[in-house]
Amino acid sequence: MKKSGIVCIAGRPSAGKSTFLNGVCGQKVAIVSDLPQTTRNAVRGIVTTDAGQLVFIDTPGYHTSGKKMNRKLKSITENALHEADAVLYLIDAARSFGEEELSLCTLLKNMQDKVVVGINKVDSAEARPGLTAAELMRELPAIPKDRFFEISALNKEGIQPLTDMLYRLLPESELLYPEEFYTDQPVAFRITEVIREHAIKMLYDEIPHALYVRIEDMTMKKNGKELFVRAFLCVERESQKAMVIGKGASVIKSIRLGAQHSLCKILPYRVTLDLQVRVDKNWRQKDHVLKSIFQE
Ligand SMILES: Nc1nc2c(ncn2[C@@H]2O[C@H](COP(=O)(O)OP(=O)(O)OP(=O)(O)O)[C@@H](O)[C@H]2O)c(=O)[nH]1
Ligand SMILES: [Mg+2]
Asked: Average of pLDDT values for 4-20?
């Protein structure tokens, strides 16, 4: 009987969770950026091998703040932990062990038997993996010592021994998904995420958190060879709209072309985007918008 189960990837913002997910799946499953709290959903990435199936759930970076949106992000991580057979706790070894790491340790305290630790970014000159491991062992002493792995998610180094250990923690079971699946995300969601990734890159210094993407229309054309998508890039204020459009519409054009190019690489048909900017005042306070972003 093979081993199959759910592995929740947890860690503070920018620890490298989504980079790990993409590397281990060998596909672009989740969007990645330097911006803390890039991930806003429980994104599944599926790895099937001779040993069985690892169903990873990437989660939003765990961060304690009382704001409405952040409370929702935290609950996504907490719910994913509940359904997990194993937890991959990723830590950025290039940053000091701070408040955020301590709040994760509190969260994981009662499930240390399920935890495998990925000490990430060991390729970085600032990385202090020995120190990071020692601090974690002090906080979560019941995690067995053979469950610590030094990795570079970016360079895909040290991954195999870590996934071997994860398999050991999973139950014997049939595959949870057909073996050709590498994600269960609906196409419309992947499109909104890729547009948001390009928008974050272009607007990083200005308004990266103030954005969300809504799809207005999707039509398949040319016998399934081309998907036409009309989408709105939504911001909170009128003043932000001008930044997103840019001088001579140069910013919105770069976002559109960049997203279109990336989508053509990950989807099995050509994608043509019509991208417009809309103002949705104070959307982060609106329940119906948050519901649609969180796919509830
Ligand atoms: N040097 C180095 N950088 C990495 C590594 N893994 C991830 N990064 C970088 O760290 C940044 C954050 O990566 P993400 O994968 O988006 O991090 P995350 O944990 O998913 O972040 P949130 O979704 O915001 O919680 C990006 O700039 C990545 O390129 C690594 O192994 N080495
Ligand atoms: Mg992420």
From this structure: 98
Nearby residues of 50 by Cβ (< 8 Å), 6 or more positions away: none
- The minimum-distance atom of ligand 1 relative to the CA of 15 is 19
202 alpha carbon – ligand 2 mean position (Å): 18
- Note if the pTM is more than 0.85: yes
Q: What average pLDDT does the chain have?
A: 95
Segment 97-110, tens digit of pLDDT? 999 999 999 999 99
Instruction: Name the residue of 19, 35, 43, 76 to mutate for ligand 1: max ligand atoms within 8 A of Cβ.
Output: 19
pLDDT score recorded for residue 208: 77
Task: Label residue 289 exposed, middle or buried (CB < 10 Å: 0-12, 13-18, 19+).
Answer: middle
From the CA of 228, how far away is ligand 1's center (Å)?
Answer: 31
Ligand 1 — pocket residues by CB below 6 A? 11, 13-19, 32-34, 36-39, 60-61, 120-121, 123-124, 152-154
Q: In 10 A of CB 29, how many CB atoms?
A: 24
Distance 222 CA to ligand 2 centre (A): 35
Give the pLDDT score at 125.
98
pLDDT at 94: 97
Gyration radius (Cα) of the chain, Å? 20
Cβ distance 86 to 7 under 8 Å?
yes
